[in-house]
Design a protein that fits this description.
Layout: E1 7-11, H1 17-27, H2 34-50, E2 57-58, E3 60-64, E4 67-78, E5 89-98, H3 107-121, E6 126-129, H4 136-141
Parallel strand pairs: 5-6
Antiparallel strand pairs: 1-3, 2-4, 3-4, 4-5
């Protein structure tokens, strides 16, 4: 494992796109095979647009000696103000992933806290996420709690 002074947390830049897409593939347990061809061009295009808008998205990453080993995404979602979200400003935390050989180093917690601080800085009401059973403990440690509403989706 690398010495602490070699570990750096920083916002992503357009130059990080290829490394980030490779990490995002791990979230979905995919390699760079046939399935990657369907979504990676869209992911690269989306990232190129979103990375420059610091008010709508946050892409913190952990870098060790020039290699991105962990990342997360925070995106602002605007909705109807309501009692649970008075301004209608929710940050969606997604794609928290660390390379397997760097897990259990505290990087996930650093990234989650970075997105939370960004959410506060843009006056979001809350941060929402979907957690795997493995990741749930990270989120609970920083204050997240289980919501009552079940999550549903419709693939189009």
């Amino acid at each position: 494992m690398s010495a602490p002074d070699e570990v750096r947390i920083r916002p992503a830049t357009p130059a990080d796109s290829a490394q980030l897409v490779r990490l995002w593939a791990l979230v979905f347990d995919q390699d760079e095979g046939a399935h990657a061809l369907t979504w990676t061009p869209h992911a690269l295009e989306w990232f190129a647009r979103a990375v420059e808008d610091r008010h709508l998205a946050r892409f913190p990453l952990i870098e060790i000696e020039g290699t991105v080993v962990a990342t997360a995404i925070g995106t602002l979602e605007l909705g109807v103000p309501n009692p649970h979200c008075p301004q209608g400003r929710t940050v969606r935390l997604a794609n928290l992933v660390t390379l397997p050989e760097h897990r259990r180093s505290g990087y996930g917690t650093l990234l989650v806290r970075d997105v939370i601080e960004w959410a506060r800085s843009i006056n979001a009401d809350r941060v929402d996420l979907s957690a795997t059973a493995d990741g749930q403990r990270i989120y609970e440690r920083v204050g997240f709690s289980l919501a009552r509403a079940p999550r549903m989706k419709l693939a189009l």
